[in-house]
Amino acid sequence: MQYTIHQQDKFKFIEEGEGEPLVLLHGLFGALSNFKDLIEYFRPHYKVVVPMLPLFELDILHTTVGGLAKHVHKFLELKDYKNVHLLGNSLGGHVGLVHVLKHPERIKSLILTGSSGLFENGMGDSYPKRGDYEYIKKKTEVTFYDPKTATEELVNEVFEITRNRLKVIKIIALAKSAIRNNLGEELSNIKQPTLLIWGNNDTITPPFVAREFNRLIPNSELHFIDKCGHAPMMEQSEEFNQILHKFLKKLAEPATVA
Length: 258
Prior knowledge:
The chain is of the alpha/beta class. It has a single domain, classed as Alpha/Beta hydrolase fold, catalytic domain (Rossmann fold), CATH 3.40.50. The chain is 39% helix and 17% strand. It is built from nine helices and eight strands. It has helices at 36-42, 65-79, 91-102, 133-141, 152-162, 165-180, 207-216, 232-235, 237-252; strands at 6-8, 11-16, 21-25, 47-51, 84-89, 107-113, 194-199, 220-225. An eight-stranded mixed β-sheet has the order 1-2-4-3-5-6-7-8, sandwiched between helices. α4 crosses α5 (152-162). This is Alpha/beta hydrolase. Keywords: Hydrolase. GO terms for molecular function: monoacylglycerol lipase activity. InterPro entries: AB_hydrolase_1 (IPR000073), AB_hydrolase_fold (IPR029058), AB_hydrolase_sf (IPR050266).
């Protein structure tokens, strides 16, 4: 499925469907293909929005989790979205957390999957090795429970990024920023209903990370998906979408008066 990429001011984004905005934040190597099943499932029910995070466009000083969160804030202000369901995978989850802590007013709910912000296993000090296709292939496969999920197309996308020296520098800057920007006890300030969907076999942000998010975020619920790694919305999209839809439907129900 091909989607139209809209441009408004300096922002590029996809917008599909009508209703409350479901805004999707991708990770460090995120591509539109990561969210394909999610977009298709939810666009009959919600306005599904994917802002293209400027991972490689910001100057090096602002190539940080905070710099990306600022970009998301300005985008949501420009579009004047209200009652936003903000979903982030990996680094995108971390950006979503920083945004909600600073600007909670437009956000109705938060959905995190394989999010950084507390702990993540990095790609190793030598990562990314430029020009080493096999190395990049192995590192991409580690993202998933089933290595076959790392299709040739996906590996090629990551490989192309890592061939560019400036992009590699910015990836490392973002990865270091994510490690430095550890949220810890701050998370107890999040008031929004929060859904945590985690792969039981995630080796990058392992299951104990999800449990810690669940403990620290007051109004949160946690679901694990078996045979699933760091990107549940790709690897187990059907189960992921059902868990998410149930959560969003529950939020749409009028509160019962005791």
